[in-house]
Write a structure and sequence with these properties.
Length: about 200
């Protein structure tokens, strides 16, 4: 059994719905369990995030998704408090070689969501993790998925406060992709090696 952890903050609930879609996508793969941790304001005392049990659980996870709405061009302060508190895991490289992915939601079509995804990516790199982005370029044939063409992670757009079906489908796809990577296909020995010429 492989474990995927979702650690995220959600203000309006839209980022939470993205997390649920990721979990549903991940569970389409066999042998996957999903651990959800929704950061709340109560988790932060005197400006510091503290939850030793969470960090112990993340040490055992095989993959970690980081999620936050995009506020003022970056992640929410509540998520940033969690990220800052992860420094003990960073100093011991406890998340090294785990898979990582990210998701965000913004009210505007552009909305600097890439800035938040870049922040989540850099956080994963600080921890020595292996980032998994989207695997569909802009202009992908199926326009009902990843309509904004973002490659760093799953991104939702909520101009009316609601996520579109395409946003949720994009999140589910990323969840499924990470889960599939936790169960790589066996290498066939004796298969011909492709020529580089």
């Amino acid at each position: 059994m492989k474990t995927i952890a979702l650690v995220y903050y959600s203000g309006s609930g839209a980022t939470h719905l993205m997390a649920e879609a990721i979990a549903q996508g991940a569970k389409t793969q066999p042998g996957i369990q999903v651990m959800r941790y929704r950061i709340t304001g109560e988790d932060i005392q005197n400006g510091r995030f503290s939850d030793p049990d969470l960090f112990a659980s993340l040490q055992q996870a095989d993959a970690i998704f980081f999620g936050s709405p995009t506020y003022m061009g970056g992640p929410a302060a509540q998520f940033k408090a969690f990220a800052d508190a992860s420094s003990d895991s960073w100093s011991g490289q406890g998340w090294r070689n785990k898979l990582a992915a990210g998701f965000t939601v913004g009210g505007s079509l552009g909305g600097e969501q890439d800035s938040t995804l870049n922040y989540l990516f850099v956080l994963a790199m600080q921890h020595g993790m292996l980032w998994v982005g989207m695997d569909m370029p802009n202009g992908y044939d199926d326009k009902s998925i990843n309509p904004m063409g973002r490659q760093l992670g799953a991104s939702g757009h909520t101009p009316t406060g609601q996520l579109s079906d395409a946003d949720l489908k994009t999140a589910a796809h990323l969840g499924q992709r990470v889960a599939a990577l936790l169960h790589p296909q066996p290498v066939v020995t004796g298969a011909p090696v492709p020529s580089l010429a």
